[in-house]
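Hi, here's the filled form for the chain we discussed.

Project: internal
Contact: R.S.
Residues: 188
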Amino acid sequence: MQREDHKRLFGETRSSVVQVTMLEETYDEACQIARENDWEQDYANLIIFSNGISFLQGKAVLQQVNSGDSKAGETIQRLTAELQKYMAMYSTMKYQAFLKTSDNESMDWAINALRIENGALKNRLDLFRADEERLKAELQRLRAENSDLRARIAEFSPALQVGRDEPLQTHGPNTLKAWLTRILRRGK
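And the returned structure, exactly as it came back:
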């Protein structure tokens, strides 16, 4: 809501906290009225109180009109103008409430979509972590196998001893495949 609208609609409005002591059955009647009208309990007392004020004000105006008071016509005109003002304010507030509710629904949808996406990404991250652990284990197994193969090759020919971090020759006649083939032929 724009500042101007807020100021125009509410002006110098302030809220007050009121504590009222009443008979329990009176309070129970108020709660029953609230339930019958599907009013939220937090607002039911305010609605009942406001309706009571309006009823008493209307009763006073009706008494003025019925008594033939000379100011009755002015009072009716004032109340009619006030009613028109409140109807315009109500229309504006209803529109603003509609916009805010629509925005709120859109935000709820976006939040739910983000929650779902977050869950999917967490699942994907868990899969990546499991893959990482599996690949680390596989890499460790391959390193051990590589060390074992290097040790076997070194047994057959000390000239082929290769340092742990030094790669075997992969080009030319001395490739690993060629040496493995030779080793396997010797064993036959």
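Let me know if anything looks off before we file it.
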